[in-house]
Amino acid sequence: MTNDLATLMRQAQDDDPVLALHATTALRREIERLEAVQVRRARVAGLAWAQIADAIGVSKQAVHKKYGRR
Q: How far apart are CA 29 and CA 21, in angstroms?
């Protein structure tokens, strides 16, 4: 399976449920990876945990728990 996001989006809407599930899972992994990269970039740029949490729609505690100990 390819990691091209456009291809994965098309596959996630496929009539074949197995293909759609594989694509959806791959999309979720890629989104998680991208979010981690952006959180790391935000911290390096000096953003507070509260600002990052607000940007991704979670509590400060949740974002710090997920990304703060890496």
A: 12
Measured distance CA(32)–CA(12) in Å, rounded = 17
User: For residues 22 and 3, is the Cβ–Cβ distance under 8 A?
Assistant: no
R_g of the chain, CA atoms, integer Å: 15
pLDDT tens, residue order, the chain (70 aa): 456 899 999 999 999 999 999 999 999 999 999 999 999 999 999 999 999 999 999 999 999 999 997 5
**CA-CA distance, 65 to 70, in Å (whole number)?**
10
Say what the pTM is.
0.82
